[in-house]
Amino acid sequence: MRHTLAVLVENNPGVLARVAGLFSRRGFNIDSLAVGRTENPDVSRMTIVVEGDARVLEQVTKQLHKLVDVIKINDITADEYVDRELVLIKVNVGPAQRGEVMQIADVFRARIVDLGRKTLTLECTGNDGKINAFEESLRPYGIKELVRTGKIAMLRGFKYTGYHDNGTKEDN
Amino acid sequence: MEMTAAEALVKCLEKEQLEVIFGYPGGATLPVHDALHHSSIRHILVRHEQGAVHAADGYARATGRVGVCLATSGPGATNLITGIANAYMDSVPLVLFTGQVPTSQVGTDAFQEVDITGITMPITKHNYLVKDAAQLPRIIKNAFHIASTGRPGPVLIDLPKDVAQTMIEFNYPETVQLRGYKPTYRGHAGKIAEAARLIARSSRPVIYAGGGIINSRASKELLALAETINAPVTNTFMGLSSFPGDHPLFLGMLGLHGTRTANLAVTNCDLLIALGARFDDRVTGKIAEFAPRAGVIHVDIDPAEIGKNVQVHVPIVGDVKMVLQELLPRLEKRSDTRWLEQIEAWKKEHPLRYETGAEELKPQYVIEKLYEITRGDAYVATDVGQHQMWVAQYYRFKRPGGLISSGGLGTMGFGLPAAMGAQIGLPGERVVLVTGDGSIQMTMQELGTIMEQELPIKIIILNNHVLGMVRQLQKVYCEGRYMAVDFKFHPDFETLARAYRIKGYTLRNKEDVDNLLPEALESPGAVLVNCLVSAEENVNPMVLAGKSISEAIDC
Ligand SMILES: Cc1ncc(C[n+]2csc(CCOP(=O)(O)OP(=O)(O)O)c2C)c(N)n1
């Protein structure tokens, strides 16, 4: 099963290497990993999508906790959350097919961010399923280049994955 | 007060009440070595950085304090690596300082530059590359805290030369602030109560105690637990010395070269009480058949060890001493004797055995004699191989922490420098090294350090002229095709000892051992005893790869 972990880490140099190294060393599979800073400049947040059964997830979480730079881990898979990913796709389209592609873009609420003589570059945000569907719809035109950010996620409603110094390292 | 970061480093170490630092200098450590001039801290100059880190490790194991070492950048740093991995595997608290090229050259493949924080990421509990000199005192404070608390381990601090020379205002923090590091010490009360109920209901309990008992100094509590519930105790290799080796409830070590009694007891128990142990593959053998009928209580300070290899019924995260202190008052004295009678029967039927009537000197006999002469009271360091297993089997430790040996990594070459560190930490105690003719040659340059520091270490080489443990594996798994395990040349170790002005002996048979070993062990200074033992001897019993531990063979 796929799990989505929201991991708060110290914004220290090397922290990404520590987390990535841990995953490869222990044979855990990362589906995607996105990292950036949070509302607090010295805390970064990683959204890690990892594949594995309950036992693997337990080990992933416990081993992550052992990293001194990891502050808090939240497995939000079972909670209500919003998740988004951004994709940039460059497709082979000349002027003749532009209209068609623009229609597809409309359906997915994607935007055209660059226009070349023979290419079109589109930007789209959404969850996994939407991005995959968007990619599939463009595939017949010939995708020259594609890049995804990896997923970021946030709990819905009142719940949050923040850091509050109450003296304990939490694990929800 | 204004001073260079290097001077601040030394001040921090003094604040940590450090007595000795094991080191080796180089260009990148000039500022720090220079700052050590005016310090009360004793600098032990080793002969190889691997010696420094193993010595710091032996020092830490023997004293329970943090071991500290200092090496230069590049090759100095890489020479530490085996020792760092060794300390990491055995959960030994170390703080390691490495010099680094100046900040402006970091990342340029400068002379003697290696990315030591990158290299040691998977083998340190944590590491730091110091970029801001003002942060150094805080980093050192954190490093000592991280190394010595929770599940202990090595922490490395890489210090670029220009950072070491930067002037800073010295201020040693009183407290640590690490929001991502908060070990759990107190066990969960509900789980402890559950453990007590499980114990009360069990009829065939076994206590399986590991190195955690030594780290948390819980030997007294372990003894109290065993005697209260009348349960037999088996030790992992790392746990040896945590329970008295001559106690009637003691089963000896379990696992690959464990006693048959220990392995049978674990296989047939209905409750396994795992204390500060990690169900390592050398212990469990075929995991599906390890303690197959048992409920499992697992106490460990490291949550990641619980449920990693086996399913646990009562998990308790905490310091094993504190957990036992809470558990003990909840237990009733038990006196059911049937299980213990069964254990006694196994002990009678399957004692550790070797051929005692032989002409040639048997290595096991040397260890038995060593035990007799020292009454189980010495600090015994070992190297890695058959001799190590014979110590585990035949030396009945009385003193918690008395065994100083490389368990997790199995590092040949650990013994001599580790014994050195132990003796420096415990000048009044008897420190004996039991090593092999292979292992000692990996780090024997430290004989120089031993003489320079006037350490009265007693070195016993069980010299079988072969890499005995590997030879044994080739006998068992390669049908006796021996490859690269016979030494065609050895120095005369007695003469070699003399070259270092160490008193040397060569013992060839039982009579030599009876006559000379006591004298050698009672001699005042360092002594090297070269015991010429049979090359054919194997460590028995042995559990073959993939087999259940209840099916040991003799080979
Ligand atoms: C650094 C290192 N290299 C190789 C090994 C593999 N190894 C394990 S035991 C052993 C033989 C050790 O020989 P010796 O020190 O003479 O001890 P003996 O087994 O003969 O008692 C070897 C080569 C190891 N454990 N460590």
TrEMBL record, chain A:
Molecular function via GO: acetolactate synthase activity; acetolactate synthase regulator activity
Entry EC no(s): 2.2.1.6
Reaction(s) catalysed by this chain's protein: 2 pyruvate + H(+) = (2S)-2-acetolactate + CO2
InterPro entries: Acetalactate_synth_ssu, Acetolactate_synth/TF_NikR_C, Acetolactate_synth_ssu_C, ACT-like_dom_sf, ACT_dom, AHAS_ACT, AHAS_small-like_ACT
Residue span(s) of domain ACT: 4-78
PROSITE patterns named in the record: ACT
Nucleotide-binding listed as a keyword: no
GO CC field: cytosol
GO biological process assignments: isoleucine biosynthetic process; L-valine biosynthetic process
Biochemical pathway: Amino-acid biosynthesis; L-valine biosynthesis; L-valine from pyruvate: step 1/4; Amino-acid biosynthesis; L-isoleucine biosynthesis; L-isoleucine from 2-oxobutanoate: step 1/4
Record keywords, A-Z: Amino-acid biosynthesis, Branched-chain amino acid biosynthesis, Transferase
Signal peptide feature range: none
Transmembrane helix as UniProt keyword: no
Superkingdom to which the source organism belongs: Bacteria
EC category name: transferase
PANTHER family cross-referenced by the UniProt entry: ACETOLACTATE SYNTHASE SMALL SUBUNIT, ACETOLACTATE SYNTHASE SMALL SUBUNIT 1, CHLOROPLASTIC
Subunit annotation: Dimer of large and small chains.
Family of the protein in this entry: Belongs to the acetolactate synthase small subunit family.
Function field: Catalyzes the conversion of 2 pyruvate molecules into acetolactate in the first common step of the biosynthetic pathway of the branched-amino acids such as leucine, isoleucine, and valine.
Protein name: Acetolactate synthase small subunit
Organism annotation: Desulfoscipio geothermicus DSM 3669
From TrEMBL, chain B:
GO biological process: isoleucine biosynthetic process; L-valine biosynthetic process
Pathways involved: Amino-acid biosynthesis; L-isoleucine biosynthesis; L-isoleucine from 2-oxobutanoate: step 1/4; Amino-acid biosynthesis; L-valine biosynthesis; L-valine from pyruvate: step 1/4
Enzyme kind, highest EC tier: transferase
Entry-linked PROSITE patterns: TPP_ENZYMES (PS00187)
Cofactor binding note: Binds 1 thiamine pyrophosphate per subunit.
Residue stretches making up the Thiamine pyrophosphate enzyme central domain: 192-327
Reaction equation(s) it catalyzes: 2 pyruvate + H(+) = (2S)-2-acetolactate + CO2
Residue ranges of every copy of the Thiamine pyrophosphate enzyme N-terminal TPP-binding domain listed in the record: 3-117
Necessary cofactors: thiamine diphosphate; Mg(2+)
E.C. code: 2.2.1.6
Keyword Transferase: yes
Domain Thiamine pyrophosphate enzyme TPP-binding intervals: 383-531
Keyword RNA-binding in record: no
Keyword line: Amino-acid biosynthesis, Branched-chain amino acid biosynthesis, FAD, Flavoprotein, Magnesium, Metal-binding, Thiamine pyrophosphate, Transferase
One GO location term (cellular component): acetolactate synthase complex
InterPro entries membership: Acetolactate_synth_lsu, AHAS_TPP, DHS-like_NAD/FAD-binding_dom, THDP-binding, Thiamin_PyroP_enz_cen_dom, Thiamin_PyroP_enz_TPP-bd_dom, TPP-bd_CS, TPP_enz
GO terms assigned for molecular function: acetolactate synthase activity; flavin adenine dinucleotide binding; magnesium ion binding; thiamine pyrophosphate binding
Family in the record: Belongs to the TPP enzyme family.
Name of protein: Acetolactate synthase
Taxonomic source organism: Desulfoscipio geothermicus DSM 3669
